[in-house]
Amino acid sequence: MDELAAARRAMGKGSLPAGDAYTIELRRRYSAQIDDVWDALTNPERLRRWLKPVTGELRPGGKFELDGGEHGEILRCEPPRLLAVSWLYGPDADAWPGTSEVQVCLAPSAAGDTEFELIHAAVVEEPLFPTYGPGAGGVGWDLHLLSLTQLLADGETADHEEVGKSPEGREFIRRSAAAWGEAHLAAGGEPAHVAAAVEATTRFYAPGPA
Q1: I need a labelling partner for 171 at 20 to 30 A (CA). Which of 59, 79, 114, 164 fits?
Q2: pLDDT (tens digit per residue) in 155-198
């Protein structure tokens, strides 16, 4: 639960090549040097331990694919501060390029820690939003950053499937969905839609009895 409290969440507006977008935004500080965090983001051996296995041409302009269907192009890579990629899911997504992008920015703090910012932008017409709201991607990123925190701290990682089966993991998911609901409300979301989206997101990530 401390990991949920460590992050600041917001929903905002942006633009993508395909049109107007909404954003889910995560900001937090990691107790690790910036080069270590950058390596965890870009070293395939470490990336697979907190995100998913990755293949492809891992260079600016190169294409990548994660072992889960997410794929895209590396748009910008400025070590050790900025990584931006297009982010598509499923074989049919290539018909709609420019509809989803992820950007991660790092900055060293005066204390030697690393300020971390992740912004995931998706076009407003993205089909999951009406049902799940920003939690559609936000809960997933919270789970992945939980694994990243463990990797940076002690080299261990969390199994997301097992997390969803444990009482503590289900509570993490429930609170993450609720936190994204609060961000949705703060961005002007209609309360009934937000409540329904939080419930749907919780059921998606932690199906079955509470």
Answers
A1: 114
A2: 877 676 777 678 888 999 999 999 999 999 999 999 999 999 99
Helical ranges in the chain per DSSP H? 2-6, 34-42, 44-50, 129-132, 135-154, 160-165, 167-186, 191-205
For residue 134, give the nearest of 90, 178, 71 by alpha carbon.
178
Could you give all domains of the chain from N- to C-terminal order, each with its CATH number? 2-205 (3.30.530.20)
**Gap between the Cα atoms of 1 and 168, Å rounded:** 9
CA dihedral 38, 44, 46, 47 (to 10 degrees): 80
**Residue whose entry in the numeric block shows the structure tokens 């907190």:** 50
Query: Are the CB atoms for 163 and 172 separated by under 8 Å?
Result: yes
- Rounded to the nearest 5°, which phi and psi values hold at 62? -80, 160
Contact (CB, 8 A) for 158 and 173: no
Q: What is the pLDDT of residues 86-137, one digit of tens each?
A: 999 876 777 677 899 999 999 999 888 999 999 999 998 888 899 999 999 9
Residue 39 is encoded by which pair of tokens? 């390596």
pTM for the whole structure: 0.93
